[in-house]
Design brief:
Keywords: Signal. It is found in: Periplasm. There is one protein chain. By secondary structure, the chain is α/β, with parallel strands linked by helices. It has two domains: 219 residues, Periplasmic binding protein-like II (D-Maltodextrin-Binding Protein, domain 2), CATH 3.40.190; 94 residues, Periplasmic binding protein-like II (D-Maltodextrin-Binding Protein, domain 2), CATH 3.40.190. Helix content is 45%, strand content 16%. It contains 16 helices and ten strands. 48% of the residues are buried.
Amino acid sequence: MRKLMLALAATVAFAAAAHAEPVRISVGSYNLNNLPFPVAAGLGLYKKQGLDVTVENFASGGSKTLQALVAGSTDIAVGFYDHTIQMQSQNKSVVGFVELARNSGLVLAGGKNATFDPAKPETIKGAKIGITAPGSSSDFFVRYYLQRHKIPADSVSLIGVGSGSAAVAALEQGKVDLLVNYDPAATFIVAKGVGKILIDARSDEGAKEIYGGIYPTSVLYATQSYIDANPETIQKVTNATVEALKWMNTHTAEEIVATLPAEFISGDKETYTQAVTNAKAIFSTDGKFNTTDIETPLAVLKSFNEKVAAKTIDLSKTYTNTFVDKAQALAN
């Protein structure tokens, strides 16, 4: 009888797997802003929703993920909210449906020989600055800083170095003088003695100092056409992700790291865990978009992006809380 029950269970499991709904999700990088996505996968929450998720990691940055989404080679992207604003300025409808990171998480770090002093903004001139990729939010960070201090954009060199250990190595090896990046890179820089944090936007106070407000970053987004054609899939992805956000809010960094696949963890586990501790404050606890906070990325982009500045942007078309609201209702 027991053998029969085991056989039946195996058959049911096989049938469930065979009927799992495929969905392609691409992630811009394994920086910690995107952490809720692998946590949801590690906890088995997408499988729990009946989804078979194929993941593609564009380690070079979120702009590549955005290109894949617009080209139709992926269904959903884990990328930054400001990309939805950029796309609207180009008459393309890309919509965020779950907020993962409610704040920037970016830092600007200097190598051992860096001469930049934030108290004297003009000292940034001539610097080679590492960013994750051209067109990324780390790129925007630098451009906005230059614009605010009336420093010509061509007075620095911007170099794409990716994120995580590759970015830290670029600073350590002197390939760049300054580095704009996220955790875990930010924590590694200090732990390894590679350099020091000169501008820190991980806290709300730091973000307000740099941007003038809270700057939401990592979100799940898709094209409006995909959302309209696949609302049930979007809802399942949302249900799983919102559950992961709630779980992260009530668990320690050690417990969070324990859910992750090995390839997501950069460097030694102890330092990486410290990076998660340092980054915990940036994560959303419920997945909802705040209508005040999303004004900040728009203001930043308008300051140097001619297409955004020339267009009347309707922020209500860049995000939706509909799926998160339903996920919360289902959970209660």
